[in-house]
Specification:
127 residues, mainly alpha, two-stranded antiparallel ribbon, 4 helices, 2 strands, 76% helix
């Protein structure tokens, strides 16, 4: 398997995991109104879901890379701010069943997506 195919597969896996995870929060938010924190009236889990969905579509289309980076960068920024607020006690992120704040996972996932896309772009440019 070519390295670019492996990197592309990893991107898809992370995006699908992110869509499932954030999608479950969106579903809970729609069902109960208590699924995720809100900024004004906007549930942040819906923003994060969109930030997984747009890069997924971009990855499938194999074009519009700038949109990929805009949405993953936005989500990574949100996750970084939420993680800092969680860590300092100034905010509360939804938690996994084991008690780990999901904003930590979001930060890791979006940072990884950005790094992998940069690597994939470099590999495709050099081939």
């Amino acid at each position: 398997m070519k390295t670019s195919s492996l990197v592309s597969s990893l991107i898809y896996i992370i995006l699908v995991l992110g869509l499932i995870g954030s999608g479950s929060l969106v579903f809970e938010e729609i069902r109960t109104g208590e699924g995720c924190p809100k900024l004004w009236v906007i549930p942040m889990c819906m923003v994060i879901f969109i930030c997984f969905l747009v890069p997924f579509i971009v990855q499938m289309a194999k074009k519009w890379n700038s949109l990929y980076f805009i949405f993953t960068g936005l989500a990574a920024s949100i996750a970084l701010i939420a993680s800092i607020m969680q860590f300092t006690g100034n905010g509360e992120c939804p938690k996994t069943d084991s008690g780990t704040p999901m904003c930590y996972y979001s930060l890791i996932l979006f940072s990884t997506l950005i790094i992998l896309k940069i690597k994939l772009s470099q590999q495709l440019k050099n081939s």
